[in-house]
Amino acid sequence: MDIIINSAPGLWLKSFLLNPWGLYQLAIIAVGFLVAKLVDRWAEPLMEERARQIRGNPDLLRVIIAFMRRLEWLFFVLWLWAARGIVLYYTAWPSRVWLIGLALTLASVWFLVSVLTRIIRNRSIARFVAFVAWVYIALYMTGFDREVMRALDGAAITAGTFRISLYSTIKAVVVSVALVWVAVLIGNVVSNRIERLDDLSPAYRVLLGKLVKIGLIIFAGAAALTATGIDLTALTVFSGAVGVGIGFGLQKVVSNFISGIIILSDKSIKPGDTISLGDTFGWIRELRARFVSVITRDGKEYLIPNEDFITQQVVNWSFSSDFVRIDVDFGVSYDSNPHQVTKIAIETAKGIKRVTNYREPVCWMTAFGTSSLDFKLRFWITDPNNGLTNVRGQVLLALWDAFKEAGVNIPFPHREVIMRSPVDVTVTQQTSGTSSKPETPKA
Predict the structure, then answer these.
(1) Kind and range of the H or E run holding 81
(2) Is position 251 within any domain?
(3) Which of 159, 283, 349, 390 could be stapled to 385 by a disulfide with Cβ–Cβ 3.0 to 4.6 Å?
(4) Does an H or E element contain 63, and which?
(5) How far apart are CA 52 and CA 102, in angstroms?
């Protein structure tokens, strides 16, 4: 329904609003809004309790929650719809319910837009998009859209044959943002589907998902420029400047991006791998276009640039195999039987839960130390992402208990101090009831 105001504002206000039927419709709208508010206070807690039991897609849950939070608008729409039907049934004059029809249209549009835009996770952006969409639809439904478009198009800057207006700028921004957002949303959906393909390796899943996202974003950007009337051939003028900018200002960004593609292509690392890079030891959580997310045992998440994985030495504990060998050094006293010590150490290592039987633990005597017989115990584990220091600690504690039970001593270093310079020593002799003078022997 289009309502175009061609008469003077005062005459229009008197003809359509300040008359009995206009005041009746305003009263019906006001009462309906109050009734919707009261019903919403009673219905929302019940609906929220039911919604908490729903499990599923987070985006779908956000839409359901947004639907519950706007039940007052749903009740308001139902009230207006019923009121319009009743009035039309008894009067059969559509012109007498135009105000109710307009309120019904605007309320319905606001309800649908505010609920559907909850797919956008940022609440501020979601509210802004909902408001802009509602304003545009409201202007279109009331017939004011042409006037507003002409006014915005009139505010323009002209330089020779080049003309840019406020309307074209707003259109370009809105269309570009909408298309890119849709491309990212579709890319995320496709990436989630690709992640479920068990036939592909984790690295190829990540690579394919990123290529799909990048391709969709590039296509959306080109489509947005075309839709807004910008000739793509005109962008060739800026290609030289963009190339220089990439060569200097974006050198690291492009380097990390290309390094990320190389890493995913050669499958040197993948999500879930346990790696060591410099002082960082942890497992890979995610591979991004610019960096790799690595989580350490203390809960810190390091965002390491992809270039570092190409130029520096990386230790991948699970590149070709999940089995990792660990060495534990210890020593026993010289009065211990080394054959007995090796047997005790091997049996003790076998009793640790994380030690695997991929290869049997071995124990070798490595040296005659200054205070002890030195041994090296070697065993294998399959879960380095669960930590290395903790399994070493478990083995050392088990060795301590086993040696205590077998009577094997673990020595501590002894130091003998020899003083070669002359020293005066005072000796005091004391007998019962008497004391003698101190004697000072000569050194």
Answers:
(1) helix 71-91
(2) yes
(3) 283
(4) helix 58-69
(5) 35
CATH number at residue 395: 3.30.70.100
Its domain, for residue 309, covers 273-316
Quick check: is 436 in a domain? no
Phi, psi (rounded to 5 degrees) for 165: -115, 165
DSSP string, 376-436: EEEEEES-GGG-SHHHHHHHHHHHHHHHHHHT-------------S-----B--B-SS-BP
280 is a domain residue: yes
232 and 275 Cβ atoms separated by less than 8 Å: no
Place of tokens 């959306």: 220
What are the counts of helices (DSSP H) followed by strands (DSSP E) for the chain? 14, 10
pLDDT digit string, tens, across residues 330-388: 999 998 999 999 999 999 999 998 898 888 999 999 999 888 999 999 999 888 878 78
Strand partners, 380: 325
Give tens-digit pLDDT for 118-151.
666 666 777 777 777 777 777 777 667 777 777 7
The pLDDT mean for the chain works out to: 75
Q: How many CB atoms lie within 10 A of CB 67?
A: 18
Number of domains in the chain: 4
Q: Is residue 157 part of a domain?
A: no
Q: What is the rounded CA–CA span in Å between residue 108 and residue 117?
A: 14
Closest CA to 406 of 365, 320, 355, 345: 345
pTM above 0.70, yes or no: no
Domain co-membership, 38 together with 112 = yes
Q: Are residues 37 and 110 in the same domain?
A: yes
Q: Where are the alpha helices (DSSP H) in 143-237?
A: 145-154, 166-195, 202-227
Residues whose CB is less than 8 angstroms from the CB of residue 202 and which lie 6 or more positions away in sequence, other chains included: 270, 271, 272
- Tell me what percent of the residues of the chain surpass a pLDDT of 90: 13
189 token code pair: 């959906």
224 lies in the same domain as 286: no
Please indicate, yes or no, whether residues 31 and 119 belong to a single structural domain of this protein: yes
Q: Residue 232's domain is classified under what CATH number?
A: 1.10.287
What's the rounded Cα separation, in Å, for the pair 210 and 214? 6
Q: What is the pLDDT of residue 315?
A: 86
